[in-house]
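This part of the workshop introduces the protein records we will be handling. As an example, a complete record with its sequence and its structure tokens follows.
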Amino acid sequence: MLIDMNIGVAKAPLLNICLMVVGTHGDVAPFCALGKALKAEGHRVRVATHAPYRKLVVEDSGLEYYPLAGDPGELSEFMVKTGGKLIPDSFEAIEALPSKLEVQFMLACLLTLPRQSAETCSANPTSPR
């Protein structure tokens, strides 16, 4: 933690943040709002999501964008089938996992800056059970 000597309040260090959002516009929009708030505090924010939402991320929210392949509808269906779990917890769920999703998440986090990865990555929250 850094101390601002003018007001004596601890400030968090600035981070490179990657928010991965699989799903619909309704899933992406709240993460864009969160990203805008984090950016306003000085953090560097990248949203990894599907191509149809690039405008929402870049133009409407002023955030960095990393593309996720796949059909948002198909991936949303997968999230419903697994109860909101991105990381499968059964053999059946592993078989249903859309190809390359884990690799895309890893790349979105690692490629935030040349020779510098994101210090923190977050994906859609799981559905309550």
Summary: The helical segments are 25-40, 54-60, 72-81, 91-96, 101-110. Residues 50 and 70 are 7 Å apart (CA to CA). The beta strands are 2-4, 9-11, 16-20, 44-50, 64-68, 120-123. The two ends are 36 Å apart (CA to CA).
